[in-house]
Design goal:
Blueprint lengths: L9 H11 L9 H31 L7 H22 L12 H15 L8 H11 L2 H12 L1
Length: about 150
């Protein structure tokens, strides 16, 4: 809740906060906001369900309920979107502009499920480099530490 506004979708919340407050996540112009929304929606539509299924069948579900063929299928279907992301990150440190933005936050927030699900990124060196850099940020470390204390 922010006053009378109630948002419940994490991507919408992140985009809203990035626009409301001046700071490193603030989108300086409509082009940056448009690209941040593009990458956020793209990650949700192209990768989120596959990554969640992969994570379930490799780590979350009880051993007896896991199906390796589902995880293999997910890895296979993720090759195309990972190729798109890999190409977009070639020669770049960030998805949009020259600094970490809400686009990086949102896409990495989804891709971290792949890391937890042992997603093979060996064929996507740019994605691996970028995701490792995103997850090495101090803010992610603080979130991870808080979560592990619960």
């Amino acid at each position: 809740m922010d006053g009378d506004l109630a948002l419940w979708e994490s991507m919408a919340i992140n985009l809203y906060l990035a626009q409301k407050y001046e700071g490193p996540m603030h989108c300086a112009g409509p082009e940056v906001l448009g690209l941040a929304a593009q990458w956020s929606f793209w990650a949700m539509l192209e990768m989120e369900a596959l990554l969640l299924d992969l994570l379930n069948h490799r780590a979350v579900l009880p051993e007896f309920a896991r199906d390796a063929s589902y995880a293999e299928r997910d890895e296979l279907l993720l090759k195309k979107p990972l190729g798109v992301l890999n190409g977009a990150l070639a020669g770049r440190d960030y998805l949009v502009g020259n600094s970490f933005t809400v686009a990086d936050l949102n896409v990495a927030g989804i891709l971290v499920w792949g890391k937890m699900g042992r997603l093979n990124l060996s064929g996507h060196a740019e994605v691996k480099r970028w995701l490792d850099a995103c997850l090495a940020r101090p803010a992610y470390g603080r979130v991870r530490d808080r979560a592990s204390r619960k």
